[in-house]
Design brief:
binds magnesium ion, globular, Rossmann fold, alpha/beta, 9 strands, Helicase, Ruva Protein, domain 3, binds adenosine-5'-diphosphate, GMP Synthetase, Chain A, domain 3, 10% strand, 4 domains
Length: 471
């Protein structure tokens, strides 16, 4: 005992906690993450854990701290909190408390303001930049990203790029299957940079958006201002570059933009669903350029990681979810983190609305339903709206009786896309377009297919719209 209620940690308690951790997380995770922890002081119900690096602190705090706290609390009810610090020296201010860190300031006023501050050198940048960059999701920050074996490398690389003021790896190329966290990491990088250095002009956009702006600029003969937009960018992030494949002119432009920015020492971050070498449709030149920096992949999730994500998410929702239910979800939904999250949210919402307890039985019931309901989320309204915008006509013309080519063609495109991208039947589509007959829809589909074969500009429009809507 040193003073007040400060005491040294009972090592026997800590040993028992460690034994449990080893059982729960397995030998190798235990070796990597638990063995390096030193537990020394217990103060005001807080156990202080010391780890050698910041990276470990962050990882342990998102992945293990809560479990350590809970186990320890089971051993000794006085322990209410665990605090992680780095090294033996200065006290670290970041605490791993009884819950995993909540998102750092989901972009409140300060952040929003920071994100529109553009680099002083770029006169025309604010308006263009704001238009260019897609909005960032406030939940996609590093603090909310659960790290495990499958993604630790990509995470560390993303962190590095976000934290260094100089260009680190150029480009950073993140790749992995659907729903494994590429977009999350990219947004996290953007948030972090915007927060650390608001003057750095960060532009994040999907490859579809990039192509879309590019093709529009071409059409409107506005390439000069298109290029101008990129001139002021310090960090360019393009998500899902596999969609740039196959379009020669866009690839060419992308290549030039890319080279120009790299030559000027700007940071580039890209993502794709395949590694650069497997992006078959991309030309050799661009492909080798893409792999010239650091390529980091996100592997499919493991059971342990899925469980960790569910823990974090449940904690975030502030709802106790029985371990059995989490394990069930982590077993059943293994493909994709997005679906895992969706399933949990749905269970929790159900329990809250119906008021019942969240049990394994309700989870099994609801999940059956959920696995069946793999319906497309895209609505015909959305399609009509996007298509109308694209062709600069009114949405109301989608269902109006006007037959002039200017509105009839876009309407046909929207019908075609409704057929392709939703599970609606022809009569349902007809009804959504001002009560037209299903044969009219059929005709529209044929017409669009024919035109796509004979008119390459038209085909490109349709393809762009498809990609936009699918993204
Ligand atoms: P991708 O872009 O690779 O298809 P996303 O980044 O959109 O995947 O991720 C899908 C969803 O899963 C998002 O809501 C994201 O927050 C979540 N997610 C993915 N990986 C993790 C992780 N390691 N920790 C927390 N959430 C994750
Ligand atoms: Mg994505």
């Amino acid at each position: 005992m040193t003073r007040g209620d400060e005491a040294t940690v009972d090592q026997a308690e800590w040993d028992r906690v460690k034994t449990r951790l080893k059982q729960e997380f397995g030998e190798s995770a235990f070796k990597s993450w638990v063995t390096p922890i030193t537990a020394s002081v217990l103060r005001d119900g807080e156990v202080e854990l010391t780890v050698p690096t910041r990276f470990m602190r962050d990882w342990i705090s998102t992945h293990y701290a809560e479990r350590i706290r809970a186990l320890w609390n089971g051993e000794n009810p006085h322990v209410r909190k665990v605090v992680l610090k780095v090294g033996a020296g200065a006290r670290d201010t970041r605490l791993a408390q009884s819950r995993p860190p909540t998102p750092v300031a989901p972009p409140g006023a300060a952040r929003v303001r920071a994100s529109v501050v553009e680099s002083a050198s770029a006169k025309s940048a604010p308006a263009l930049g704001a238009e260019l960059s897609a909005p960032l999701d406030s939940r996609y920050v590093f603090e909310n990203f659960v790290v495990g074996k499958p993604n630790e490398f990509a995470y560390a690389a993303a962190k590095r790029v976000a934290e260094s003021d100089q260009v680190s790896f150029n480009p950073l190329f993140l790749y992995g299957g659907v729903g494994l966290g590429k977009t999350h990491l990219m947004h996290a990088i953007a948030w972090e940079i915007r927060q650390r250095t608001p003057t750095r002009h960060v532009v994040y956009l999907s490859a579809e958006k990039f192509m879309y702006s590019f093709v529009r600029a071409l059409r409107n003969q506005d390439m000069v201002s298109f290029k101008e937009q990129f001139r002021s960018v310090d960090v360019l992030m393009i998500d899902d570059v596999q969609f740039i494949s196959g379009k020669d002119s866009t690839q060419e432009e992308f290549f030039h933009t890319f080279n120009a920015l790299v030559d000027q020492g700007r940071q580039i971050v890209l993502s794709a669903d395949k590694s650069p070498s497997n992006l078959e449709e991309i030309g050799d030149r661009l492909r080798s350029r893409l792999s010239s920096g650091l390529v980091a992949d996100l592997h499919p999730t493991t059971f342990e990681l899925r469980l960790g994500i569910l823990d974090a998410k449940a904690e975030h929702l502030g709802v106790p979810v029985p371990q059995k239910v989490k394990e069930f979800l982590a077993h059943k939904i293994s493909s994709n983190v997005r679906e895992l999250e969706g399933a949990l949210t749905r269970l929790v919402a159900h329990a809250q609305l119906v008021g019942g307890a969240l049990t394994l039985e309700t989870a099994q019931d609801l999940l059956q339903d959920l696995l069946r309901a793999h319906d497309r989320r895209l609505t015909m309204e959305e399609i009509q709206k996007r298509v109308a915008e694209h062709f600069k006509i009114r949405v109301s013309d989608m269902s109006s009786a006007r037959r002039s080519r200017v509105v009839a063609r876009p309407r046909q495109v929207a019908m075609y896309l409704s057929k392709q991208l939703t599970s609606r039947s022809l009569p349902e589509i007809g009804r959504a377009f001002g009560g037209r007959d299903h044969t009219t829809v059929m005709h529209a589909v044929k017409k669009v297919e024919e035109l796509s074969k004979s008119d390459s500009a038209f085909a490109e429009d349709v393809e762009l719209l498809t990609r936009m809507l699918e993204s």
